[in-house]
Amino acid sequence: MSSLPELSQFSFFHPLRVRWAEVDPQSIVFNGHYLTYADVAITEYFRALGIAYPGDLAKDGGDFFAIRTLLEYRAPARFDEQLQIGIRSARLGRSSLTFALGIWRDGELLTSGEIVYVHADGATRSSAPLPNWLREKILGFERVAPQS
User: Fold this and answer.
1) Mean pLDDT, residues 19-40 taken together
2) How many CA atoms lie within 13 A of 116 on its CB side?
3) Is the pTM of this model over 0.85?
4) Which one of 21, 25, 76, 121 is most buried, by most CB atoms within 10 A?
5) The pLDDT of residue 37
6) CA distance 77 to 103
């Protein structure tokens, strides 16, 4: 990640309260849970776009496969804190979709990162172009157009 994300860069946020089971013996959220938080927020992002994931992609015979994840930890989250998870489509490739993410607590950036998915044929698992209807929904939703 080249620069820190700012709240104003995101069109979508999902609130999430830290549960007891997510806290490790150091009394902070265990690092692996941040990917779960991102996954939950991406699912809600699709819902906000009116996309039933994975069903709508399956209609075209496709699905998404994660090919890269990057998280940068800046400060820990703790039990019972209310988090805001920002998700945005940062890049639309031919067959890939890159999500930028930020996790904040009361305006303080705790974690930033990105997740890259490749759109692929569900049967062969070979890459396939992003459906045009998906591109249109993303471009209509985002305040800042994703890179191509």
Assistant:
1) 96
2) 11
3) yes
4) 76
5) 98
6) 9
Element (H, E) at 116: strand 108-121
Give residue 2's pLDDT: 53
Residue 45, amino acid: Y
Residue pair 61/55 in contact by the 8 Å Cβ criterion: no
Separation between Cα atoms, residue 33 and residue 56, nearest integer Å: 27
H or E segment to which residue 132 belongs: helix 132-141
Say how far apart CA 7 and CA 114 lie, in whole Å: 15
Alpha carbon 120 to chain centroid, angstroms: 18
Rounded to an integer, the average pLDDT of 51-71 is 92
**What span, in angstroms and rounded, lies between the C-alpha atoms of 14 and 104?**
11
pLDDT surpasses 90 at 57: no
